[in-house]
Amino acid sequence: MIRVEGVGKDFVLHNQGGTAIPVMERAELEVAPGECVALTGASGAGKSTLMRMIYGNYRVGRGVIAVDGLDVAQAAPREILELRRWTLGYVSQFLRVLPRVPTVEVVAEPLLALGVDEGEAQSRAEALLTRLNIPERLWTLSPTTFSGGEQQRVNIARGFAHEYPALLLDEPTASLDAANREEVLTLIEEAKARGAAIVGIFHDVAARQRLADREVDVTAFAPA
Ligand SMILES: Nc1ncnc2c1ncn2[C@@H]1O[C@H](COP(=O)(O)OP(=O)(O)OP(=O)(O)O)[C@@H](O)[C@H]1O
């Protein structure tokens, strides 16, 4: 479902005379449906960079990144948007939303974008918010003023609203208490069980050991 082959990347520092800093070389990764692969390696090793390339946020310098058969490295922006709508979900560490949009709409939005009926999208959003212990009185408010943990749970609810065949998870349990962490781990296990291919960054070692079928240390992809 996700295949990374011979991927390399340089960051070009435009504000420093266009200096090119190589950050990755010969990256390889393969994730099958129903499998969870954890990216490991010290801070700065390139875990987030690889994940952002898979999502199409960072341009791929060299090599192939195929997601459900689409080469993200060569795809047109329109194809990447389609891939994100239907196939590839991404739960980043931080929630980014438009101001004044109610929480329940933030969560339902990926379903509405797929043409799911409004009532159905709303009830799926409400079920996820309930599961993730976001009190009902907050559903009609914008999440912009929520606590860090509440925002993270809204972000997770949004990322799990549609059953994406492939998921990228960046520290999904980072600021959660024990009960909510458990709920999120269960959601991820359910996604695996229905066949989602998952790439995750988990600094939470116990979470990583529980969820990951394999670990890939990105330090191996450091430029020589
Ligand atoms: N937009 C950017 N421009 C220039 N350099 C960048 C950019 N993004 C990341 N880097 C550099 O690429 C390297 C890898 O960073 P990355 O964030 O991928 O590491 P990481 O393994 O995810 O680290 P952490 O665990 O701390 O999040 C770092 O040296 C970082 O400074």
Automatic annotation (TrEMBL):
<keyword id="KW-0547">Nucleotide-binding</keyword>
<dbReference type="InterPro" id="IPR012701">
    <property type="entry name" value="CP_lyase_PhnL"/>
</dbReference>
<dbReference type="InterPro" id="IPR015854">
    <property type="entry name" value="ABC_transpr_LolD-like"/>
</dbReference>
<dbReference type="InterPro" id="IPR027417">
    <property type="entry name" value="P-loop_NTPase"/>
</dbReference>
<dbReference type="GO" id="GO:0022857">
    <property type="term" value="F:transmembrane transporter activity"/>
</dbReference>
<dbReference type="InterPro" id="IPR003439">
    <property type="entry name" value="ABC_transporter-like_ATP-bd"/>
</dbReference>
<dbReference type="GO" id="GO:0005524">
    <property type="term" value="F:ATP binding"/>
</dbReference>
<dbReference type="GO" id="GO:0005886">
    <property type="term" value="C:plasma membrane"/>
</dbReference>
<keyword id="KW-0067">ATP-binding</keyword>
<dbReference type="GO" id="GO:0016829">
    <property type="term" value="F:lyase activity"/>
</dbReference>
<keyword id="KW-0456">Lyase</keyword>
<feature type="domain" description="ABC transporter">
    <location>
        <begin position="2"/>
        <end position="224"/>
    </location>
</feature>
<protein>
    <submittedName>
        <fullName>Phosphonate C-P lyase system protein PhnL</fullName>
    </submittedName>
</protein>
<dbReference type="InterPro" id="IPR017871">
    <property type="entry name" value="ABC_transporter-like_CS"/>
</dbReference>
<dbReference type="InterPro" id="IPR003593">
    <property type="entry name" value="AAA+_ATPase"/>
</dbReference>
<dbReference type="Pfam" id="PF00005">
    <property type="entry name" value="ABC_tran"/>
</dbReference>
<dbReference type="GO" id="GO:0016887">
    <property type="term" value="F:ATP hydrolysis activity"/>
</dbReference>
